[in-house]
Specification:
The complex is a heterodimer of chains A (254) and B (347).
Chain A: H1 16-19, H2 22-38, H3 44-61, H4 65-71, H5 76-88, E1 93-96, E2 99-102, H6 103-129, H7 132-141, H8 146-175, H9 186-213, H10 230-253
Antiparallel strand pairs in A: 1-2
Helix pairs in contact in A: 2-6, 2-7, 2-10, 3-6, 3-10, 5-6, 7-8, 8-9
Chain B: H1 10-35, H2 39-53, E1 57-61, E2 64-67, H3 71-78, H4 80-97, H5 106-131, H6 135-164, H7 171-203, E3 219-221, E4 227-229, H8 231-274, H9 280-288, H10 315-346
Antiparallel strand pairs in B: 1-2, 3-4
The chains are: A mainly alpha (254), B mainly alpha (347).
Chain lengths: 254, 347
């Protein structure tokens, strides 16, 4: 069980981005996503600028491009959806390579693709440079309800255990020749889910009793007080700050 | 089903964020009642379970497969408030750690997959289990709840899309595509939820929140063989259930006006902001000069069409009327259902 806790999401390192307090990074990423979504889709140059900003962050944090690309796979379903839009969209149509494409559909596909990609990149960078536990501590400092933060912490702690349990059940099923091919196999999967629930709930009850016997009173002790200096806030604020300044600048010119 | 950034207009994303925050706040209060001091550890565990179960792919039809949404399953196993919390946490973690679902679309995602699916599932489940009792009824109710909650979530998505989607696809097309696929997924979700619940019922019936009333009353057997039949247990049960009902009614007392006020603020106030300027599609349509070619749908001449831009009604008033009609229809349905169940109890 000792080797199961290497989160492939997190790339440990000691760069400027890694050292920033989590609450600063969290706030910066959320503000950046807001700025990106608020940008009108016709301003192509700005999106290139946002991409360059994220690339700069990736270079400073020494996150390899291959890692980013692999994590971008999350986006694939919506890329497919966006590719379909010009074909099914309504309104004026334009011929392109012998195909009739919807103009509004092309605009919408561009809009979704570019904004979703920038958003995914920003959150991948956040997860790559910050330990998951630290992200939650940062969320707590940003005044997210502490019960919610605690639930998320317990979820992260249990996640590896439950996924390993599920993997063992899958190995057991498949070593007996099971493959889910059609609807008749659903009951087998569902019984596994039921067994998984019972096993994990009983484990949770045992862990809770063990925690009570070690003095758990309903909240986890905070070991390190991570307060951020105004200089660190300023550094983290560069990302959304520059993006917002560019957006407002272009707005003023337009 | 995770909505990415840029899929909905900022106004819709913000409004959905307000709804999601309010829903999670209510769920935080309610979950303490469902789980007492074990709230954080057990809800965290159920969240991890939902996350794991969402990775179970099941075959839907030839060639396509879907995955569980888990809203109905969580609601039946641990109760609706905890379920909303768990799904909200799952979506938060997926958004921040796995980049699955946009950060600005978190409100939309939590509202649809957390609040709408759990509420619909729990309402259906309660309706069925009130009219019939027993283990079979619980399993059948789980099937119905999961079956209906998935297309209902898809319908909620279509509604938001109609209010502020950025893609130029006719709402009818979206509704047909989403509804069709999600009815299929709903059948798979219903099957899995029902079998999972029946598996848990067979082993640890005390773990199924939706089947709390089913446990056989305790029987105390004395040395002489006399049975003091469960009198204490039943008394205790009544003593627990009566105040719970009273508090829930009392809570509804302030909750209903607050919800109506929030709806009114959103419909009357925020909708000004929402449509103060033409949205992206309308703007492109005007720029390209094909706005006049667009054909309105069948109700285009009604005073509420386009949220009042045509019929001479101010936007906010149109929003208020819309919210009022929705409330009246929903309230009427609720009242009708309640009267029927009361008659059923009396008879």
């Amino acid at each position: 069980m000792g080797a199961g806790h290497h989160h492939r999401l997190h790339l440990p390192g000691d760069s400027l981005v890694h050292r920033l307090p989590p609450q600063c990074k969290l706030a910066a990423v959320v503000c950046f996503a807001l700025v990106v979504v608020a940008t009108p889709r016709e301003w192509f140059g700005l999106f290139a600028g946002y991409g360059a900003l994220l690339a700069a962050v990736a270079v400073i944090a020494r996150v390899p491009p291959g890692f980013l690309l692999r994590r971008m796979a999350v986006e694939v379903p919506f890329v497919l959806f966006a590719v379909a839009l010009p074909f099914v969209g309504s309104g004026e149509r334009t011929p392109f390579l012998g195909l009739s494409l919807s103009v509004a559909g092309l605009w919408a596909a561009w809009n979704i693709l570019v904004k979703a990609t920038l958003g995914v990149l920003a959150s991948v960078l956040l997860a790559a440079t910050t330990d998951p536990r630290m992200i939650l501590l940062g969320a707590q400092r940003l005044r997210l309800p502490s019960l919610l933060v605690q639930i998320a912490m317990f979820m992260l702690r249990y996640l590896d255990v439950i996924l390993a349990e599920m993997r063992r059940m899958r190995v057991a099923r498949e070593s007996r020749g099971f493959a889910a091919r059609d609807v008749r196999h659903i009951p087998v999967i569902a019984r596994s889910a039921g067994a998984l629930f019972i096993r994990s709930y009983e484990r949770g009850e045992r862990v809770h009793l063990a925690m009570l016997s070690r003095g758990y009173t309903g909240s986890m002790p905070v070991l390190a007080d991570e307060s951020a200096s105004s200089r660190q806030w300023l550094t983290a604020g560069m990302l959304p700050g520059v993006a917002l300044a560019a957006l407002l600048g272009v707005w003023g010119l337009a | 089903m995770h909505v990415p950034d840029g899929f909905f207009t900022p106004a819709v994303s913000l409004s959905a964020g307000v709804v999601a925050a309010a829903g999670v706040a209510v769920a935080l209060r309610g979950a303490r009642r469902e789980l007492d001091d074990r709230t954080a550890p057990m809800a965290g565990l159920v969240a991890a379970f939902v996350f794991a179960v969402q990775m179970l792919n099941f075959p839907v039809a030839a060639g396509t497969s879907g995955h569980l949404l888990g809203g109905a399953l969580a609601a039946i196993l641990v109760g609706p408030y905890t379920a909303v919390l768990c799904i909200a946490v799952v979506l938060l973690v997926q958004g921040f750690f796995f980049a699955d679902g946009g950060l600005t679309a978190l409100g939309v995602n939590i509202t649809l997959m957390g609040i709408v699916s759990v509420l619909v599932a729990w309402a259906v489940f309660r309706l069925v289990t009130r009219s019939a009792r027993g283990r079979g009824a619980v399993v059948a109710a789980s099937f119905a709840a999961a079956l209906i909650s998935v297309p209902a979530t898809a319908l909620g998505f279509t509604l938001l899309f109609w209010l502020g989607g950025t893609a130029p696809v006719a709402v009818g097309t979206v509704a047909a595509a989403m509804g069709g696929v999600h009815t299929l997924i709903g059948i798979g979700e219903g099957l899995i939820t029902a079998v999972t619940v029946s598996t848990v019922l067979a082993v640890r019936p005390d773990l199924v929140y939706g089947a709390r009333g089913l446990a056989a009353p305790l029987v105390l057997r004395g040395p002489g063989g006399q049975e003091s039949e469960a009198g204490d247990a039943e008394d205790a049960g009544d003593a627990v259930s009566v105040p719970a009902q009273a508090t829930s009614r009392r809570r509804l007392g302030w909750f209903a006006p607050a919800a109506i006020a929030l709806t009114a603020v959103l419909a009357g106030g925020v909708s000004f902001y929402a449509s103060a300027s033409p949205d992206g599609l309308e703007r492109v349509a005007e720029d390209k000069g094909f706005a006049d070619r667009a054909t309105d749908h069948a109700l285009g001449d009604q005073p509420l069409a386009d949220y009042g831009e045509q019929g001479g009604l101010p936007v906010g008033v149109a929003g208020l009327i819309g919210a009022g009609v929705t409330l009246a229809v929903g309230g009427g349905l609720f009242a009708a259902v309640r009267r029927r169940t009361r008659e059923g109890v009396a008879a």
